[in-house]
Structures are given as C-alpha cells and as structure tokens.
Design a protein that fits this description.
globular, mainly alpha, 80% helix, 2 strands
Length: 321
C-alpha cells in the first residue's frame, strides 16, 4: 500500500521534531520560540511552492468562503498540537514525548464517530473499525515496552508535564487534519491545505513569539538554525507526505487508521537519532521486544489494508458483471 510507505517516510522526517526540540531545550532554548519559529519559516517555503504551482487564488477563495472552520481546525491541528509537543519537550526527554505521541494511532481511530459518510442518500455516522483498533492497540503495547527502559528515571512532575500535553496533541493533530480534509474536500491539494492552515494560525504564533521575547529575549542562533531544519524536515516534507497519504484514503476509515498507525515508526527513528546525536543509551532487551512488536503491527496493518482493498475490488468486479 503506497499510502503506508508515504506514512513511514513522513515518520522519519517527523522524528526530527522530537530530537531537535529536545536538543534545543537542553541547550537552553525556550519552547515558545521552538514552536513559533517552525511556522514562521514554513510561510515563505510553502508560499513559493503554492505560487509556483499557481494554486494561490483557489486557496484564498476557500479560506474566504469558510473563515471560522479554517481558524478553529487549523488552531486544533497545528497550535494545540505543536504547542503541546514543544511544551512537553521542556519537561520530558525525546523518547518519552515521542513514545507518548504514539497514542495518536489509537486516538485517530476513536475519533471516527465524530465524522459522517454518505451511504446511498443517507448521511451515516462512521463506526470504529475494531480490527484496526486492535492492531493499533497491539502496536501501542510495543511502544509501552520501549518506555520501560527509562521509566525508572522519570519523576512524577516530569511524567505529568511531559505526558499530558502530548496526549492533548495526540488527539488534536488527527482531529484538525481530518476536519480540514472535510472542510476542503477535493478542492485543494495538500500543499494548499497546509499553507492555508499555517496562514490561519499565524496570529497565534505571533502572540506566542511575543511572550517568548518578553520572557527570555530573542532566540539564539543555534535555536534559529535548528528550528529552520525542523520547519523543512517536519513542517514541510513530513507534513506534506502525511497529508497526501491521509488525503488519498480519507473516505476509508480502516485505511486511514493504517496510515495514521505509521506514526509509531517515529519511535524507532527517534531512538536511533538520540543514540547517535544525543548519546542516549541503546535499547535494552524489553525495549527491543517493543520494537519488534511495532514492526509486526505495521506489517499486520499493511496486510489488512491490502486484503480489504482486494476484497472490495473483487466485489466491484462481481457487481459490474
């Protein structure tokens, strides 16, 4: 399934966020600057892409047509998500934040009943695909096993401040993404949707940056450079790949769950990155078992999605004959 491959590639670039956010915190950078700088850098990058594709006018037309949904769901999918992630990085190590973030693979499935699908002439509330939920929960067990390696070194304060904001982010990101897909339909591509969401959230990032300036002064050169890298790798490349993948399967809740489950692979990339760049210890035996469970879970998701696709293809062929 091509969408799962895109999701895994997105996870690799998303991992940069957790590694560099923690790196910036360890070097004394404020989470207020880490969060806002990423989106400031995304504006010119996405502006050039959308402009070269000659898609600027349709985007502004869509935003003008439904300003409130753009504002609300962009805030949910970007500000509430990324603000919470960077805040958590101030209190918890990258492995804790990245590991807790994997709750999003179950959160995305549980959000299903908040959306509708058209069957015939009726508008029906979507159901939770329990097989996909079971496989995603299985992956989550692997993530929890990885967390055991360092759990004894984490204080209660670190656990609360490093975990609760990430849980909020884990629900906010898929909710904002799915609602924006619903708002835009097929009228906008992924680049337009991301750029529009960034523009809609700019006022919030300006306020956050202003608070950061008052509290800690301007960001250091090192933080600016690392935020720029995060903007390119995570903000543009990873977000675009992930949005393309989810947009392709937006009408199939089971496949959408499979694509969202690819975010579990982030833990693998974060562990590798922290070992290489931040001198973190290698995974122990329990954590290694967790890694194998995650990989097995992703294989099951891919198999289930492919099997469902084959069955539906045969069903359509039978009806046509």
């Amino acid at each position: 399934m091509k969408e799962i491959t895109l999701g895994i590639l997105a996870s690799m670039f998303f991992a940069v966020t957790f590694i560099l956010n923690r790196s910036m915190e360890l070097s004394g950078g404020s989470w207020l600057w880490s969060s806002s700088l990423r989106f400031f850098f995304m504006v010119p990058l996405l502006f050039i892409i959308v402009l070269l594709r000659k898609n600027m006018k349709p985007l502004f037309k869509e935003m003008k047509r439904q300003p409130l949904p753009w504002l609300v769901w962009s805030f949910t999918g970007f500000v509430l998500f990324y603000g919470s992630i960077t805040f958590a990085a101030s209190y918890g190590p990258g492995w804790l934040v990245a590991g807790t973030w994997q709750i999003t693979i179950v959160a995305g499935i549980l959000l299903g009943p908040l959306f509708y699908e058209v069957i015939g002439t009726k508008k029906v509330r979507k159901k939770i695909p329990f097989r996909a939920l079971f496989i995603s929960s299985f992956i989550l067990i692997g993530v929890i096993l990885i967390q055991f390696q360092n759990s004894g070194n984490v204080s209660t304060n670190t656990l609360l401040l490093g975990v609760i904001p990430v849980i909020i982010a884990a629900f906010s990101y898929p909710l904002g993404n799915r609602k924006m897909m619903e708002v835009c339909g097929a009228r906008l591509d992924s680049f337009q949707r991301i750029f529009g969401m960034v523009l809609a959230t700019l006022p919030f990032w300006i306020v956050i940056a202003a608070i950061g300036y008052v509290q800690v002064g301007p960001p250091s050169t090192d933080q600016v450079v690392q935020s720029f890298i995060v903007a390119i790798c995570s903000g543009v490349i990873a977000t675009t790949l992930f949005f393309i993948a989810t947009n392709r399967v937006r009408d199939d809740h089971s496949k959408l769950a499979s694509v969202e489950a690819t975010q579990s692979v982030q833990v693998l990339f974060v562990i590798i990155g922290e070992v290489v760049l931040l001198s973190s210890p290698l995974p122990n035996l329990i954590a290694t078992c967790g890694l194998f469970i995650i990989i097995l879970g992703m294989i099951l998701h891919s198999y289930y999605s492919k099997k469902t696709e084959t069955i539906r293809g045969l069903s359509k062929l039978t009806k046509a004959n």
